[in-house]
Amino acid sequence: MSHVLIRGAETVLTMDDKGTELADCDIRLRNGVIAEIGQDLQPGDAQQVSARGCVVTPGLVNTHHHLFQTLTRAVPGGQDALLFGWLKTLYPIWARFGPDEIRGSATIGLAELALSGCTTSSDHLYVFPNGARLEDTIDAAREIGLRFHPTRGAMSIGESAGGLPPDSLVEREAAILNDTIRVIDAFHDPAPGSMCRVGVAPCSPFSVSRDLMRDAALLARDKGVRLHTHLAENDEDVAYSLATFGCRPGQYAEDLGWTGDDVWHAHCVKLDTPEIALFARSGTGVAHCPCSNCRLGSGIAPVRAMRDAGVRVGLGVDGSASNDTGNLIAEARQAMLLQRVTRGADAMSAREALWIATRGGAAVLGRDDIGAITPGLRADLAIWDVSGIKSAGSWDKAALLLAGPARVRDLFVEGRQVVADGVLTTLNLPRAIEHQNRLARALAG
User: Fold this and answer.
1) Dihedral, CA atoms, 187, 216, 321, 97, nearest 10 degrees?
2) What is the structure's pLDDT at 206?
3) What pTM was estimated for this model as a whole?
4) Domain that holds residue 375
5) Whether the Cβ atoms of residue 316 and residue 65 lie closer than 8 Å to each other
6) 29, 159, 162, 184: which has the highest count of C-beta atoms within 10 A?
7) Both 76 and 158 in a single domain?
8) Is 444 inside any structural domain?
9) What number is the average pLDDT over the span 271-292?
């Protein structure tokens, strides 16, 4: 593989256990890993990349997304709705998707993440209309070059059975489990440095049965893969759980085997104090999605309380139909601001929020090989140019979330340069955007 030497970084935020920050630093990348960190390293035969006037961070980690939704941004009728009303507006549109829509939308969503400094992303795909398959998203991630954690989602309880989604979007539970086995066997790679790890992810308590939740957890543990779903997203979600299951979401999850260090739940806006303690005790992770939670009026997740209790927390951009963007560095800033709104200006620092976006996300996805700039870890790095107007006048260039760019200058994944000078190297982005807009016009027409 290529040998890269990143030279003269103004600051390197390592995100190691000590929070080490290095000045005027070089980083050597070789064979997909961080080989060496220091000053005045000898270039040898390396491709040299100047990082003068730049801050280098670990690649950001996105722990929750619905990439297929990138094709349905700002849909009229759903722009001002709460979660359930928003879903009811969009379900019929998603039912008209096929493989081209799923892959095209994933391509744009992953490209957008890469340009925001993200090197690893999960995805929660829970609709499979008209022949769409999970590998439509896996192919897109392989093309863009991001490290990928796709999850095989599902909905099995349609409107006729008391669920929220239309019957046209639900699947038979036996078929769901069989296809989950298929994609795990075909695509899951548990090895260190893996570029693709598959998870099991029934959509939500209001769209699948208790039996499917229980069986999915058993399957995931038999296969040695992680579990993911939505939980306690807003007041409607909690009310549904109380009315339908007679318990709060945390109890529902625990009863069905959905707590543990191999589980992470999206949103968790409405977790109460006992549920936070349950998650901390069991090692259950949380994907915090602040922008989407604001957009849908769901509330502000108690992230400060979660972290103080010891809950593993990462960030997620959520779907671009509810965000309506996929910028992970902007998500980190929003997470910081919302905790300050609820708990005071000292509730979360810029560096802590960036830690959540890197080390926190890696922990939530069960990765100990990414998330920090340390020799031996994978060569996933983001280079941020702090010489421009966004940081002009800043006294602390490393405080990226206070006064820094929202777009990365360079991005390396497994030592491969995916973004160079702000441009994707792996994709003809203008052509992909044109294709995406053509698909959106067809759906809207």
Assistant:
1) 60
2) 84
3) 0.98
4) 3-59+370-424
5) yes
6) 29
7) yes
8) no
9) 98
pLDDT of residue 164: 87
Residue 336 identity: M
Residues 311, 417: one domain?
no
Decide if 210 contacts 256 (C-beta within 8 A).
yes
Task: Let me know whether 285 and 401 are in one domain.
Answer: no
What is the DSSP code string of 308-369?
A: HHT-EEEE----TTTS----HHHHHHHHHHHHHHHH-TTSS-HHHHHHIIIIIHHHHTT-SS
Identity of the amino acid at 200: V
The C-alpha atoms of residue 167 and residue 349 are separated, in whole angstroms, by 46
Residue 60 and residue 411 in contact, taking contact as beta carbons nearer than 8 Å? no
Confirm if 199 and 367 have CB atoms less than 8 A apart.
no
Residues making up the chain, counted from first to last: 445
Contact indicator for 10, 53 with CB cutoff of 8 Å = yes
- In 44-117, the DSSP E strands lie at 47-50, 54-58, 60-62
For 32-83, write each residue's pLDDT tens digit.
999 999 999 999 999 999 999 999 999 999 999 999 999 999 999 999 999 8
Question: At 173, which helix (H) or strand (E)?
Answer: helix 173-187
- What is the per-residue pLDDT across 211-250, written as a single tens digit (0 to 9) for each? 999 999 999 999 999 999 999 999 999 999 999 999 999 9
